[in-house]
């Protein structure tokens, strides 16, 4: 083994000497960013296909049995398998979420353990495919970041280049999931690259464009399929009101997730935490079936006017009044999607708050437009408010308004709604910042004094 390592080291040194002699460094980084885009896209496509297939089978089972009591137990199984993998296979060395990536950039020279290149795929696949109420975006970002970081480490690149390739992997993951290269770049710039340099832009562009192409070739299905409806000036007051509502919802969502995950973070991952988080999760999914899994199918149904999926297999159908049932289910989803997401992670599952934020926002926008349209005085376009609500809550929870605007513009197929998206996200973002100073991703780093708080930055600016 010792001789093997010595020979491998000598080979890498020889290849590095040949590379520096015949290939310009800038061109070499662009080539590597292309490769990272391909690898990150393959990981994202694999997860999308696997999770989509299992979720579809669960929905068919619900329909066949005309009940959801059996699939309400699936998340407990999925989270349990994820917990076993985290404890037994990875020995607790697989950090979840996006915060650890920022920590690696700022304190560990952008080095991420090799277990992150495949561990998140395994644990998030069983978590989400079995109904865990979280999204795949954070695990895919973590996987792409680990691919970029470990590639740079193997090539013995500098800290700056390692950080760049890590960001390329993260951006490529977002681009591949949503087929949105621009929002992938902006996500990396807003969330990960706190010190952005212009030369970073071209490799990021190459990697995200590559990831998007690979994703479209291997997984042609569009994220959302619906006809964009033009907006009119008379709706601006309603978008302003929606922005205020999204801000309040974002504050609630952030506080709930931080509180529940904070409680679980003080407990060791074991059977007790699995049951303590998993059993309430199953109960919530039994009472509120749309909490099952990521929830993107629900938003797609609402965009296409299929409101029946909201109350399908729900006890609210027994109320007799369809309007009350729909409004009641929307309120329950807005209140408990964040709870179920935090319980999923706390119990041992792997996933992020990205998808729950989009679902909460979409349902918030639908609920707002639905209530307005019940009045005899107004008739606003529900689809536009669903899209704007998604952007508003995502911007508030992540503190990333540009990512939210461009993401929703790209995945809905155009920039027709750009102005409404700007209005809603701006209001939601500034409202959230008033009550929640830091995003979920940055708060722990501020508490550890790894990055400066807004107050400290303001003081430095005044000095």
Describe the structure in brief:
The chain is mostly helical and 463 residues long. The protein is 72% helix and 0% strand.
Descriptive keywords:
463 residues; 0% strand; Clc chloride channel; 20 helices; mainly alpha; 2 domains
Structure description:
With 463 residues, the chain is mostly helical. It folds into 2 domains: 209 residues, Clc chloride channel; 215 residues, Clc chloride channel (Orthogonal Bundle), CATH 1.10.3080. The protein contains 20 helices and no strands. α8 runs antiparallel to α17, α10 runs parallel beside α14 and α16 runs antiparallel to α17. It starts with a helix and ends with a helix. The C terminus is likely disordered.
């Amino acid at each position: 083994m010792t001789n093997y390592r010595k020979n491998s080291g000598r080979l890498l040194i020889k290849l590095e000497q040949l590379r520096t002699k015949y290939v310009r460094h800038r061109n070499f980084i662009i080539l590597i960013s292309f490769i990272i885009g391909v690898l990150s896209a393959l990981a994202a496509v694999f997860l999308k296909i696997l999770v989509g297939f299992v979720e579809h089978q669960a929905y068919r089972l619900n329909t066949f049995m005309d009940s959801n009591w059996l699939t309400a137990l699936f998340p407990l199984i999925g989270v349990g398998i994820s917990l076993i993998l985290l404890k037994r296979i990875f020995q607790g060395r697989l950090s979840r979420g996006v915060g650890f990536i920022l920590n690696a950039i700022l304190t560990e020279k952008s080095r991420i353990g090799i277990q992150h290149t495949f561990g998140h795929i395994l644990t998030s696949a069983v978590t989400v495919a079995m109904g865990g109420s979280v999204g795949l975006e954070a695990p895919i970002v973590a996987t792409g970041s680990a691919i970029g970081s470990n590639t740079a480490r193997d090539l013995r690149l500098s800290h700056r280049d390692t950080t760049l390739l890590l960001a390329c992997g993260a951006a490529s993951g977002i681009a591949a999931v949503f087929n949105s290269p621009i929002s992938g770049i902006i996500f990396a710039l807003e969330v990960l690259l706190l010190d952005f340099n212009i030369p970073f832009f071209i490799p990021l562009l190459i990697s995200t464009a590559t990831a998007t192409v690979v994703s479209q070739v291997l997984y042609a299905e569009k994220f959302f399929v619906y006809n964009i409806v033009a907006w009119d000036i008379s709706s601006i007051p309603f978008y302003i009101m929606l922005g205020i509502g999204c801000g309040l919802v974002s504050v609630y969502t952030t506080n709930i997730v931080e509180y529940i995950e904070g409680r679980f973070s003080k407990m060791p991952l074991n059977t007790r935490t699995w049951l303590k988080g998993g059993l309430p999760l199953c109960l919530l999914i039994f009472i509120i079936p749309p909490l099952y899994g990521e929830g993107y199918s629900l938003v797609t149904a609402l965009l296409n006017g299929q409101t029946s999926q909201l109350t399908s297999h729900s006890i609210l159908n027994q109320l007799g009044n369809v309007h009350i049932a729909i409004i009641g289910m929307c309120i329950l989803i807005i209140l408990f999607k964040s709870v179920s997401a935090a319980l999923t992670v706390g119990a041992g599952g792997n996933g992020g708050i990205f998808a729950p934020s989009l679902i909460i926002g979409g349902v918030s926008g639908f609920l707002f437009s639905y209530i307005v349209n019940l009045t005899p005085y107004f008739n606003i376009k529900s689809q536009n408010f669903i899209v704007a609500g998604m952007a508003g809550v995502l911007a508030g929870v992540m503190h990333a308004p540009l990512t939210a605007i461009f993401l929703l513009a790209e995945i809905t197929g155009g920039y027709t709604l750009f102005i409404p998206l700007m209005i809603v996200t701006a209001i939601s973002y500034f409202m959230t910042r008033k009550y929640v100073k830091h995003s979920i991703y940055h708060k722990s780093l501020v508490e550890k004094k790894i990055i400066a708080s807004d107050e400290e930055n303001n003081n430095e600016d005044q000095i």
